[in-house]
Design brief:
By secondary structure, the protein is an alpha+beta fold. It has two domains: 330 residues, Alpha/Beta hydrolase fold, catalytic domain (Rossmann fold), CATH 3.40.50; 201 residues, Galactose-binding domain-like (Jelly Rolls, Sandwich). The protein contains 15 helices and 26 strands. Strands 13, 14, 15, 16, 17, 19, 20, 21, 22, 24, 25 and 26 form a twelve-stranded mixed β-sheet that branches. It has a ten-stranded mixed β-sheet with strand order 1-2-4-3-5-6-9-10-11-12, with helices on both faces. Strands 7-8 form a two-stranded antiparallel sheet. Helix 4 crosses helix 5. The longest helix is centred in the N-terminal third of the chain and has 17 residues.
Length: 557
Amino acid sequence: MNPAAPDAPHSLYPELDATALTAFATALESGDTAGLPPARAAEVRAARAAATFSRGKVAGTGGDLLDAALWRHTGPGPRPAVVLPSPWTGLGWTAYAVQATALAARGYDVLAYTVRGFGRSDGHADFAGPLDVADGRRALEHLLERAAGPVTRIGFLGVSYGAGIGLLVAAHDPRVDAVAALGAWGDLGEVLYENSTRRAAAVQVLLASAGRARLSPETERTLEDVLADRGAEGALRWAQQRSPSAHVKEFNRRRVAVFLSHAWHETVFPANQTLGLFGELTGPKRLDLSVGDHCGPESAGLLGLPSPVWTDAHRWLDHHLCGTANGVEGEAEVLAEVMWSRALEPSADLPAPGGNVRRLYLTGGGGLAGAGGIAGAGRLAPEPEHGWTAGVLCGVDTPAAVADAVVRSGYAELAGRPKPYPGDEIGSATAASVTAAWCGAPAGETLRVRGVPRLRVTYRAANSGSTFVAYLLDLAPDGSARLITHAPFSDLTSPPDSLISADIDLQATAYDVPRGHRLLLVAAARDPFYGDANLPRATLAFTSPEPVPSYLEVPVG
C-alpha cells in the first residue's frame, strides 16, 4: 500500500446529506411532511397522491434479502418501470429517495433497492459480479409482479456502483430497453490498472468508503492484491467479468438506449475507459461530460437540487420508455462542459469533432525564464530535436500531483477553485532532478483542446520496472498553472538500462487555454495517486531518438 497516497474519503459522495434523505424517506412512508423544506414536502405529497409507497424486501440470489422501496401506481393502465440499484454507500436505496419519487410523479412504477452487502441488505458485495446481476434481475421481477397493470417498457438507472450494475443487468436481461448510468465505469480493468500502472489511491478509496459493508472474500482479496502489487492477471480476469465494455455486442444487438454521464477529472473511474464504452455503442446513446470528480455533478440532483445531468437523464428515460417527444432524438450525442468557463458544447462525435491534431515535439532546454516560460525547461516545438537528455530521479514526491484529495478535489473544481500548481517549481532547473518539463510558445489565440491528447516519448530506465506520470498543464504568464489532463505509464518487462518507447493516451479533456498562456508538459517518476514500479533513487532519462522522435499530439477543436 502506498502510505503517501491522497486522503481517502469516508464516502464517495461526501456532499450527500444522509439526514435530509432519511427524513424524506420517512415522510414518504408516514405522510408527515412537517419537518421537510417546502419543496421536498410538496414532492412527497404529490408522489403519495399519485402512487403507493412501501418498504420491503426483494428476494435476492441464494435467499439473500435486499432492502428495497417501491413506488407503485394503483391504476390498471399500462405504464413504464424503472429499477435503481444503490450506489457504493451504506445509505442504500435511501440515496435515491428524492429521485425515485420524482420518477414516480412522472408516471413510472419505481423500485429502488440496496445492493447486497450494503446497509440493511443481506449477502456480501460482489462488485457488480454475477450475484449482483442476478439480484438486479430479481429486483425487476419483484417490481413486475407487483405492478397493477401491464408494464410497457423497462429502464435501469443508477449512480456510480449502481450505474455499473444497471449497465450489466441491461446487457444480460433482454427485457431492459434503456439505461441511465451516471458516473459509471466501462472497463473495470482500467480502473485498477491504467497503462499497466496500479491506480492505488482509487482502490484505497473503494475500500475505505465501503465503511461497514460486507465485501465478498473475492472482492476484498482482489482490491488488496492491487494495493500489494500482486496477482495482476487474476485481478484483470475478475474485472473483465464486471466490465460493461465486455458486453458491447449485446448492447448493440438489442439497441439498448444508453445514457452516460462522467466528470473530466474523475479520480475513481478515469474518463477514457467510459468514453471507450460510449464510442463502441451503435444504438441510441448520449454522453454528458462535466467539470469535477466522481459523481460530483450528480450529487446535487440526488438531494433534489437543480442538476443538468439529472434533467438529461429524465428526458432520456421519458423519450425511450414513454415515447415522449422531447427532442432528445435530435440532439447531439455528446454534451461537454468546458473547463473552466462551464460553457456547454454539443457535438456529434468524440473526440474533437471537426478539429485537427497539433503535433509538438519534445526538445532540449530553451532558456524561457523572463518571457513567461520556465528556466531550464525543454520546449514543445514544431520540429523535432535529437541528442538531448532530461533526467528524473525516482522515489521523490513533486508538486505535480494528480489530486490532493480523491473525490473532494473535484468539489473544489465544481465551485470554481481548481487546484493551483506552481509551474515555475515543477519545471525549473532547481527541480530538474525530480521532474522533466517542456514548455510551449504563448498561445496567439485561445487554444481549444478537445479530446484525447497523445504522448510518444522514449526514456532509458536504469532498472527493470519503471513508471512515470505525464501531466499537461496550462501555464499562465504569472507562473501559476492548472491541470488540463494527465496519464501514468509503467513498463514492467524491459531489462535494466533499456530504451523504452511509451505511447500513451492522456485522459480526454475539453479545455480552453487562454491567449498568452502556454502548454506545459511535465514528467515525474512518482505521484502518490499511483503505485509505481521504480526503485528508490533510480533514474529515468527522457530523450528523443532520431528514428522515433518524442512528441505530444494535442487535439484542437
